[in-house]
Structures are given as structure tokens and as C-alpha cells.
Amino acid sequence: MAFQDDSAMTLDRLDLGQRAEVRAVTGHGSMSVRLLEMGFVPGVQVALIKRAPLGDPLELRLRGYHVSLRRAEAKRVQISGVTK
Amino acid sequence: MSRALRIAVAGNPNVGKTSLFNLLTGSRYKVGNYPGITVETREGSIRPTKAWQPRADTPAPTLVDLPGTYSLTPISEDEAIAFRALTGAVDQVAPDAVLLVLDASNLARNLYLALQVFELGLPCVVALNMVDLAADAGVAVEAKQLEAALGVPVVATVARGGVGLDALIKQLAQADQVEPAKPRLLEPAAGHDALRSCLASLEVEGVSPARARWLLAATAAENLDLCGASVDERERAASLDPRELEQAIRSLVELRYAEVDRLLAQLPSDAGVGQHNAKRDGALAPAMARSAKIDAVLTHRVLGPLSFLLVMALIFQSIFSWADPLMGVIEAGIAALSDVIAGALGPGMFTDLLTEGVLAGVGNVVVFVPQIALLFLFIGLLEDSGYMARAAFIVDRLMARVGLNGKAFVPLLSGYACAIPAIMSTRTIASFKDRVVTILMIPFMSCSARLPIYTLVIGSLFVANAPVFGPFTQGGLILLSMYLLSTVSALGLGAIYKRTLLPGPTPPLVLELPPYRLPRIRDTLRQVWDRTADFLRDAGTIILAVTIVLWGLLSFPRVDPAELGPGETAIERSVAGRVGKAMEPALEPIGQDWRIGIGLIGSFAAREVLVSTLGLVYGIENADEDDAPLREVIRDAKDEAGAPRYTRLSGIALLVFFVYACQCMSTLAVVRRETRSWKWPAFMLVSMTVIAYLAALLVFQVGGALGLG
Description:
heterodimer, A: mainly beta, SH3 type barrels, 5-stranded antiparallel beta sheet, 5 strands, B: alpha/beta, Rossmann fold, 7-stranded mixed beta sheet, two-stranded antiparallel ribbon, iron (chain A)
């Protein structure tokens, strides 16, 4: 069984219906700033609601609203404390 | 008499900002454009009501409706407009006050922008909009309580129902006296050393703390050029330590969100708790409860794409066929008017100018109105209801492969009906480069004006009903191939343009899926009218002018019918006829002759005009009403040696030419309108004509070499 490194857990690896807490947004540039400003700041709870019919992008829920991100962008969001 | 107050209307997208603006101004406004781009702002005075009249010595305040934005760190041009108008950066004056529209059901995100606006230190009035929906979702917030927490006037409104308007107008009329107008800045706390040090580097003489904060964010977002920073500021920004900058922007955003949470926590528990819990519990989005049920179908793995196809088919079908009767009425009306004028004035050159030049030109413009109006009605309804975001969600994966995002899909699809409204609908695409890529792709989509040409050529040179296999006939399969060719070419060329001519990263997708709402039909209709008027005014004049010029080319010099040789028609002696004949050496390699050349000149007005122009060349009246006689003539036409003038191969070459060629001045006029420059229409005309010629050449020469001629 593969060892699951929790420090590398990112938003794109959540299963449907799972929730987690945002730890950090990695990287730099406009996309990282936009993710932060849309509310992906440490301590915020985020849930994976749905995947688009073709598997990408994702529908996420945080701060009382729904937002869609591509998997490539969700990968920038590090998470911890995954719960069902 | 004192100057009118200028009040900027700001808010997140989908908060009902435009409805509120329309109500406050009575939908009387000017649409303003920024040079070089077509992001619009709208400006209008507050309309006096029963409860409020402007004082005799002060004009009513002017409202400026800004594009919706999530923050003051712009990443696209429409957000940059909102940013510039609010901050006064880039040769603009900051507004006297701000009307901040907040979605009452989602303060946990909306308050972030509010805090950034407060930093600017402008007088601010908050419209707490959609309080009815917030109450339904069980997260109602009292305006008074929010007012106490924020320290600025807050008025509860329901823009849809006109609730709270009078109270809001009263606040706006005295907006410049709102206290406090001091910038309310969040100071770096313990552990925010990087933020403190970056701000210290930026916050020099003449740079306000608020300016230092947005400079910092714009530097981190690598978007300083959207913000109009000075040379000195750019130098200081460039000298920041990259690692410190990354840390600083994180601290700054976290600081603001911590303040949002602190403000929410101040609201009484039963009111604020639902909002506040949204932060704690990712499973809660009270305002989305009903929408999530609708999405169980509309973004379902199987039902989602099906309903998407159904919606698109409905739009496509409506533009394709519902507009048709209206277009018929317009064409018949123009024809009847022509007859009346011709009857009243008698035959003559002036009559021809009036009927075949001016009236035909007006007809060429007005005939697009049903399609434009219908497309924008549908797009408006889809946007305002919240479905457009779902459509982008469903097709984003496909569009990402071209290098665009889901928002480019609807304009491209609309291109099958008509490129004119489709090009106008690209305004929702945030990046100008991506918009131009989409605009360049659209005319390759096989529009409805190509159909008469396809049917003429297929009907003349092929046996449309000859079965090939199963239910498929020659006509159907050729038609299908042309549509496939056009679609594949549009997507392929789009991908090439995106990687060469207009390079840029695939636009990221950070797309809010807002709650579904009933659109306010009056706002939608108003937008339909704005778009249509826009087209009539800007593109219409160009189309009218070119129609008259084309009429001149096809009619002059005038010839006495007695002078014509056997089988010769007057059009051959016209300027266009001579140019057509001069073009023949270039047309032969693609299997065409000078007659088609004249047709190509005439059909620059609109593709389907090829049919009537060829009718004139062959001396057949009313060829565009019934092309059967023309088909026979084309089929039977022989060259000097007695061989058929047109072969099947030359027919296919002509079809392929029309798939690619930009034979449509109206498209060029609209591209000029939308890109605000002649550069892109010129590029479009040249590149499409070259591609069309080369493709037809390839078909005719390779086909000929293979013995298919």
C-alpha cells in the first residue's frame, strides 16, 4: 500500500462529497492571488461537490458559495483534515 | 449650481447590480466605451421619484455602473475597468462616492470587496440586495445590524421588486456627506513581517497606504500593467524580494478575510450564524440549497450534457428558423418599398441607386436584426438565470484543448447561424487576446448564408437525391462534409492562432456557479435593445456604404442593351465584370471562370448574393427566388471547346472556397466595431481569402492530378 503523504494532499485529490480544510495556496502569479481572494485562505472548509461530465473542471463549495476550478488550478490548494 | 455627484456602482458579479442601476436611473443611460476595448460602463442620472426630487441648486447624482468584480486585483480587462474607476488610477478621477452592492445571502465572500473599497477612503453607501432570497435561505441579515458592524449606511433592497429604492436614493443624494471617509486600513499583525516590510518599501512619499496595498497585490498577480503604476512604482515593485512578496500577499488577504469573519461574528447569532458557519463548514451554502437540486439534473454526468445540447439546439434552431419569417417580412417589405419607389420615379439611374443601392443596403443591415435580437435575448436569459456558468462548466474541458475557456463556446456555436451576432456575443470573454482568437474562429463556422450556395452548387453539378448508402444521399453527405470541414478548421485554426498570433496561457477558470434566479425580463430586453442599436449604428453605416459601392461596381459604366452581343449581359461590361474577367487567370487554377469571379465580387455584400449575381451574369431574372433555371444553365454551360464549363471537381473547389472565404462585409464591419481597429478585419479578410484560395487550389489541382476532374 502506498504511503499517503498528508503534507502533499491537494484539493484536486479530494473524493466526491469529501471536505477538508485549506492549508495554503502554493505558487505565485495572478492565479494564486485570485484563489486567495476568492476565499481559499488557511482554515477555510472546502467541499468537492461535483466533477464536470468530462471529468474536469471541479465544482467546489466554500464560504457559502459554489465555484468551479480546473484540476490544474485545484492542485495549487493544499489541504488537510479530509473528512467525509 | 453645483456639480452632480459621481457615484460608482460596484459589486461582485451576479449581485443584481445592473437591475438596481436600471431601476435607479429609470433605464436612461449612456453606454460608454473605453478606447481599444469594448468593455462597457454605463452612466445615468438618478431618476426623481415621488419620494425624492433633486434640490433646485444641485443636479441629481450620476451613477456609473461598473463591471462586476470579486476584488480590486484585476486579472481581466473588465475587472481593470472597475479597478481604474474606483481607484482613479490611470488618468481618471476617483468617484465622489461608491454605491457598493452586496448579495445579502453571501456576505462571507461579498464583504471581501467591501473591505478593499473601504480602504480607498471614499464615502460609501451599501445596498444589501436580495434580502428576500437571504431570508428564504435562512440567513437574513438586518440592515441596521450590518450598518453597525460596517460603520457605513446600509439599505436593504430587493432590486427585482423595487424594494428599498426610496431609502437608497435618499442616502445616495447625500452620499458625499457620509462619514467616515477615512481609509480604513488593516494593519499587519504579529507574524506579518513580510507584509510590513513590502508595504514599507512601496509606501513612500506621495503613495497612499491604500495605493501601496493594491500595488502590492498587483505586483504579486503580475498585473501591474493593468493598473497604470508609475515608472517609480514599477521599479520599487520590481525590487521586492519575490519570496517576501509571496508571503506578504498571503498575509494581506488573510488579514482581510479574518476581518470579514470578525464582522460576521458581530452580527446577532440567529442572523449572522448561517453566514458565518459557511466559513466553518464547507457543507453549508444556504443560498445554494435550491440550486443544488436543479444542478442535480443540469450538471449531472449524463443529463447535464443532454440538457445542454437541448438548450443549445433550441437557441440554434431559433436563430436558424424562427428568425427566418421575420427576415422574410423585412426582405418582402424592402422589395415592396423598392417597387413603390421604382413605380413612382420610373426607370432610371437615380431609381436604381435608390432601390438597388440605398434600399438594398438598408435591407442588408436590418435583415440581421431578428437574429441579433433573438441571440441576445437567449444569451441574456441564460446569463441572468445562472445557466451560462453551468454551460461553461460543462464544455470547459473541450474548449481548454483549443486554449480557450468554456465561455467561448456559445459564440462559436452561434456562428453556425450567423457570424454577426456571434461576434458581438464574444464580449463575455475576459481576455482581449482570447476574444480576438474567438472572433477570428467564428467566420469559419458554416453560417446560414452559405446554405443557398451549397444547395445551388450541389443542385447544379451533383444529383442531390442520389443514394450513396443507407439513407444518405450525395447532397446530404456533401453538405455534412462542408459543415465538418468548417468546424474542424475553426477549432484547428483557433488552436494555431492561440499558439502563434495571440499567444497566452489557457485562461484559468475560476467560475462562480451562482444560485439560479428568475431573470428580470425588462433588464434582458433593455440589453437586447442596446446591442441591436449598437449594431445598427456602428456596423450598419459601414454595411450601407459598402452596398452602395458594390452596386456602383456592378452597374457602371451603363450600357445600352442594344449594344450587347449575343448572350452578353450588361453586368459583363460593368467595372465588376471587367475585374471578374481580369481575375480569370487566378480563378482557372481553382476551376472557376470570370463569371464566378463577378459572382465573388457581388457576394462580398453577403454570400447568398452569389446566386442573384450569377443570375444577372446568365441573364436570369429572380434567380434568388427560384434557382432551378440557374442550376440548369450552370449544369449545361459549355466552354468554347464544347466541354462542360463546370465539373464536379470545380464545384467541390467552389464549395471549399466558400467554407473558408470571408465573403461578408457585414462580418468585417462588426469585427471593426468589436476590436475598435481596422487591423483585425483586414487580417481576417486577407487570411481567410488566402486560406480559401489555397484550399480550393489544393482540391482542384490534387483532384485533377488524381483524374477526378
